[in-house]
Amino acid sequence: MATIVGGLAVSHVPAIGNAIANHREGEPYWKPFFDGFPAARAWLDRVKPDLAVVLYNDHGLNFFLDKLPTFAVGAAPEYCNADEGWGLPVLAPFAGDRDLSWHIIEHLVAQEFDLTTCQEMLVDHAFCIPMELFWPQGAPPPAVPVAINTVQHPLPSPRRCFRLGQAIGRAIETYDKDLKVVVIATGGLSHQLEGERAGFINRDFDQMCLEALATDPSPLTALSSLDLVEQAGSQGVELLMWIAMRGAMTGQVSRVHQHYHIPISNTAAALLVLENTPVA
Ligand code: DHB
Ligand code: FE
Question: What is the reported pLDDT for 280?
Fold first, then answer.
């Protein structure tokens, strides 16, 4: 059976991709952010996941306001990146794993999650930047992308996303291959890119979230998605992916590493590494 080795969660600001492309990681603006990553990479070197499930939100590259699924799961042999207009290089396609995709899809539908299944799926900066950050030498493991709508209201609730994560966790655990799987969440933490509160960051709320994700996520699942808008900003709702990732940690959870840096662009940039130890 497959095992869940742990969860990684990280912000996905496009400017990070630009800093990587232009080798600016050591500059004063960037160093405090990139200093968070060696510990996460060392953990990955230790646990050596074979596959990744990536919980992310599409920002209009693959889905647009005309058709926007609440939950979409990729079932493609590979996932192409494309130009979103951020000035980032278009990355080479990412390998998929259709067997794990269909296993997760079968399991989620049986658990009454009504999904969109995507046999073609473009992946945007929210998927690509974490892959670049965690596997800077290239060659990330094959991935199953899971897109959660954070763009078109009404959004799914934190509790619903947590339950989606729990169902993904159970699906991975019942996958009949002896493989190690890491669950990656991308987005957040607090940020708002538009309107009267543009530039809004809420350090206290972010710290509460990091603590809850590592210890007891129940304060987060008690919130509504509109509470998240209020507390974390209109794009801070990307916390939904972090909450879903925590749901997928089916075993005993321990915090391996945490990093928080304000701001990168308009965003409170954070990183969390959780290890999952299966319980018999
Ligand atoms: C920024 C943050 C995001 O989450 C995003 O998707 C795009 C831009 C930013 O802070 O610039
Ligand atoms: Fe975003």
Answer: 75
The sign of the torsion formed by the CA atoms of 156, 157, 162, 163 equals: negative
Q: Containing domain of residue 241, as a range?
A: 3-277
Q: How far is the CA of 14 from the centre of ligand 1 (A)?
A: 6
Strands (E), 81-179: 94-95, 116-118, 143-148
Cis bond upstream, residue 44 (ω within 30): no
Q: Cβ(121)–Cβ(62) under 8 Å?
A: yes
Report the separation in Å between the CA atom of 275 and the middle of ligand 1, taken as the mean of its atom positions: 27
| Ligand 1 atom 1 nearest Cα | 13
Ligand 1: atom nearest CA of 264 is: 10
Cβ pair 16, 270 in contact under 8 A: no
Ligand 1 atom at shortest distance from the alpha carbon of 12? 4
**Which of the following is catalytic: 12, 107, 191, 261?**
191
Write down the catalytic residue from 125, 153, 259, 261: 125
- Residue-wise pLDDT tens digits, 45-80: 999 999 999 999 999 999 999 999 999 999 999 999
CATH classification at residue 243: 3.40.830.10
- 152 vs 253: CA distance, rounded Å: 32
**What is the total count of domains within the chain?**
1
Report, as ranges of residue numbers, the positions in the chain whose pLDDT lies below 50.
Answer: none
**pLDDT of 12:** 98
